[in-house]
Amino acid sequence: xxxxxxxxxxxxxxxxxxxxxxxxxxxxxxxxxxxxxxxxxxxxxxxxxxxxxxxxxxxxxxxxxxxxxxxxxxxxxxxxxxxxxxxxxxxxxxxxxxxxxxxxxxxxxxxxxxxxxxxxxxxxxxxxxxxxxxxxxxxxxxxxxxxxxxxxxxxxxxxxxxxxxxxxxxxxxxxxxxxxxxxxxxxxxxxxxxxxxxxxxxxxxxxxxxxxxxxxxxx
Length: 219
Ligand code: TYD
Prior knowledge:
Layout: E1 6-10, H1 17-30, E2 35-39, H2 45-55, E3 60-61, E4 67-68, H3 72-96, E5 100-104, H4 107-117, H5 122-131, E6 140-145, H6 148-157, H7 168-179, E7 190-194, H8 199-213
Parallel strand pairs: 1-5, 1-6, 2-5, 6-7
Antiparallel strand pairs: 3-4
Bound molecules: thymidine-5'-diphosphate (TYD).
Thymidine-5'-diphosphate (TYD) is lined by residues 13, 17-18, 39-41, 54, 79, 105, 109-110, 113-114, 163, 165.
């Protein structure tokens, strides 16, 4: 049995990772390929807890009686634990069955979000990298690059409550970080795609990146 391809889709909040994960699944499935889509935080037990922290449903009490979201280092540990659980319980079994796995976010998100919220110092980044040392590498990572104003507009347009990383200044720093994220993953195949154009243009560029990874000619 040939293992499935493992593909991660990454970018800031509002870059379109969720939409394009769905569109890519549709495109690959239409060609008869078995595809499984998933996301991080995952839908497993640790990922479910993380989602409650992101939305403010699960908070920690402070000394002065107020409540806050857990700190960046707690989050970094939980995201890494969720990732290894996600791999073991969901990603690897599918790949072994020959299924292509598309994940909406992976450890690039940890290096970006937890490093920046942790202050961005080199030793902080190195620690987050160490936590993710045993995370299997994707065969292909697609980073959707979108300017901060467009990503912000998309975040505002979508319904739902604000999450803890929904902060314009943080998202601007993340945009810059993602542009240079390849430096932290020297052995990965990372393709940057402009996510600011039409849905169709971006969808086509993503499909071509996947075709190239599969050794197929571009459309
Ligand atoms: P989610 O609601 O899935 O956002 P989106 O649909 O826009 O991708 O929440 C994921 C949030 O978690 C997002 O703000 C990025 C953050 N995150 C991290 O901080 N570290 C990580 O390792 C991962 C996987 C996500």
